[in-house]
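Tip: read the tokens left to right.
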């Protein structure tokens, strides 16, 4: 690519966002017929009322492709103009090839390159930051960044402490490399911050894998331990983003957090001094869709007119690993 200046004089701007939810909507009352739980018990502890579950034969790549097409339409960009796909997922179609390459094939793209990233619930922020780095380095000109999950496939449906929490879905954004460094005065990804701490594996993990059990395994979680660490880890990356950018809870327009648990979202916003009116929340209807949760929530807020061009938006996530990340974006 030769039409842009050196990396320090480029930035990534967001052109459009799209999403997809499977047709099968499962309410708490539906789950209460399968496991020992209740609508009130789930809502009190998580804020979740319903989630979507992929149909038999509906794969992560299918959800991702739907979301990608939605984002391309919103951005007025043709699939052929995409030369990079970064897909965040913890539930790939296959061990390999990368699910991103399946989406690439579904879209009819034969140029450029595509790959997956795996940071569980932080995956979308990791993928966004990765794509931003590639665009700023001049390796690509336009990118699809996708978060897509079929967590229903790795849940133990007899474990009421985990199966009630998660859902399936996908969200995507289109990025384009643009002239000039990141600036408060122009649209683009301003700053990002990523963290991980592998000492907490046993607190949130899947008990299977090709190298260990040769099975897909099921999700296992120490809920109280995750909650105990979540707010401090979220605060850490957001405070770093604020320090880099000079922004704060008062100056941002919207906070789009990972949709894991309503209590975690509320506690994080309160600790950071973010007005609850600025917080986009979809966990009640989507559940925890892992890497898909941020773009799903973002797409909903853009679609209903809350988030508009010029707004300053903060993305944040924390997930298994533990991983965490935050990005500040001017639309």
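Filled-in amino acids:
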């Amino acid at each position: 690519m030769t039409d842009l200046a050196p990396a320090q004089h480029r930035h990534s701007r967001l052109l459009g966002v799209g999403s997809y939810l499977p047709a099968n909507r499962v309410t708490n009352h539906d789950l209460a017929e399968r496991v020992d739980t209740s609508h009130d018990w789930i809502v009190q502890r998580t804020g979740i009322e319903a989630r979507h579950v992929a149909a038999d034969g509906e794969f992560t790549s299918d959800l991702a492709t739907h979301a990608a097409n939605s984002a391309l339409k919103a951005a007025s960009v043709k699939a052929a103009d995409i030369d990079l796909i970064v897909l965040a997922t913890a539930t790939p179609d296959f061990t390999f090839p990368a699910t991103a390459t399946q989406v690439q094939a579904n879209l009819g793209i034969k140029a450029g390159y595509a790959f997956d990233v795996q940071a569980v619930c932080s995956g979308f922020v990791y993928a966004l930051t990765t794509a931003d780095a590639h665009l700023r380095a001049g390796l690509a000109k336009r990118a699809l960044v996708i978060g897509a999950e079929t967590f229903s496939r790795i849940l133990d449906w007899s474990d009421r402490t985990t199966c009630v929490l998660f859902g399936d879905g996908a969200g995507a954004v289109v990025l384009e490399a643009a002239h000039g460094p990141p600036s408060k005065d122009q649209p683009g990804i301003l700053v990002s911050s990523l963290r991980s701490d592998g000492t907490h594996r046993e607190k949130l993990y899947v008990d299977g894998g090709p190298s260990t059990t040769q099975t897909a395994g099921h999700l296992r979680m120490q809920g109280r331990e995750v909650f105990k660490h979540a707010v401090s880890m979220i605060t850490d990356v957001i405070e770093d983003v604020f320090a880099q950018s000079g922004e704060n809870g008062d100056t941002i327009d919207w906070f789009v957090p990972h949709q894991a648990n309503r209590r975690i979202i509320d506690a994080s916003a309160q600790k950071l001094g973010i007005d609850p009116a600025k917080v986009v929340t979809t966990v009640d209807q989507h559940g925890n869709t892992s890497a898909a949760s941020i773009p799903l929530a973002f797409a909903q807020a853009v679609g209903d007119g809350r988030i508009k061009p010029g707004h300053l938006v903060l993305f944040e996530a924390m997930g298994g690993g533990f991983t965490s990340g935050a990005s500040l974006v001017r639309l």
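The radius of gyration is 19 Å. The first helix runs from residue 28 to 32.
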